[in-house]
Description:
The protein is α+β, with helices and mostly antiparallel strands. The protein has helices spanning 15-28, 55-61, 128-143, 178-183, 185-197, 223-243, 288-299, 301-308, 314-317, 349-352, 366-383, 400-405, 415-423, 426-432, 434-450, 456-463; strands spanning 33-39, 45-51, 63-65, 91-95, 101-102, 109-118, 146-151, 153-158, 202-207, 213-218, 247-249, 265-271, 274-275, 330-332, 339-342, 354-357.
Amino acid sequence: MTTLADPVPGGRPGDVERATALSGELSGRGVHGIVLAYVDTAGVGRVKTIPTAKLASAVAWGVGMSPVFDTFLANDSIVTTDVLGSPDGDLRLYPDLDHLVELAGQPGWAWAPVDRITQEGERHPACSRTFLRRTVREAAERHGLTFRASIEIEWAVAQPPGADGEFVPTVTGPAYGAIRQVALSDWTADLLAALARQGVEVDQLHPEYAAGQFELSVGAVDPVGAADRSVLVRQTIRAVAQRHGLAVSFAPAVLGHGVGNGGHVHLSAWRDGMNLHAGGDRRHGMRPEAESFAAGVLAHLPALTAVTAPSPASYLRLKPSQWAGAFTAWGRETREAGLRVVTGTAGHRDQAANLEIKPVDLAANPYLALGCLIAAGLDGLASGARLPEEITGDPAHLGAREAAARGVRRLPTSLDEAVAEFRTDEPLRAALGPVLGDAVIAVRQGELAAVAGLDDDGVAAAYRWTY
């Protein structure tokens, strides 16, 4: 379980002693360096590394890094807001020892997620991990709620790119087919072994729909832990692939056409150890709080796409009839709806029932995505919102009158539309705060400008090897 306490100068109580012991243990096992990892507003993983012997110093006093990365674009250009994007200032990266892990796919290295605070010891208002942790803590304090979450990971496996950045899948064959599993069985076996050694519970790993595409699902944990795990798993997939001479892309679209890579979020709300999505008298066993939470997510889904589908390439993926969840619709086990109610198997529903939010890809910063999804759900809970009529089948086939009657409309078809929705969503903007909310807008606008004039193939190529 992730600590919900903010880091402080000098270290949280007991952290320095714990870090001293850990650094000795790691050094004894041949671990020479520790990766300090976070995700920027554009969804790009950023790191600093320290020698293992410096871990105690890092948890006490942090490691310096400029705040300018909050307004970096995926291509490393920099945009600005009224408070972010200048060359001034410094932040301190504080590793979370609860999630420090020795990297099985990168011998000699360990990994830890970080929170970022100011040199004065205050929260950095643009730290997405701090935002998520704060949101989770406030939900517990105000509503008595906890959450369990997991993020699906889809990626494409390819030959290492040449100078032109071309995408050449290493293996073809039918979707979900045995051909792909056999062809890459050595790599996937090593991947499963590495994740097991890192303590990551894998539910399933299989070939997916598109050429060279695979999907991995992991067990649900607390939201901060789920976001950390998403970053760690991708680091491990990439590292193990490289050791096998392979390249991977988690980009929303590796090509300008066809099915892209998703990062669907599974999320459930709990109170006093009870899953609110099962055992109730509302539709499909939801308790009233679970229905209101789901209704809040559904109502905010158009604006949420600016966070959950944050790249121009996201909209090459977010299309109807491709199981991407391109509509403001919900239904039980309906994979074309933006919000899928998963009830689980009879006899296991008290543990398995959850919401799947589908218009999410892995260009999204997972801390921002989960924090905003929870904030949207809590807004629905506060107002006692009710879900509209559910759908079955593909909402793209609904007539205009029936779609309107059920509240079904197409989600934004471009990042520009998503940003316009986000600008007017006051509850989401308030949850993020002005500094982080403005950073989201500035970075999205910067991404749009960076690919202005490119066709679909050009947009896909621009982000193919960034994520």
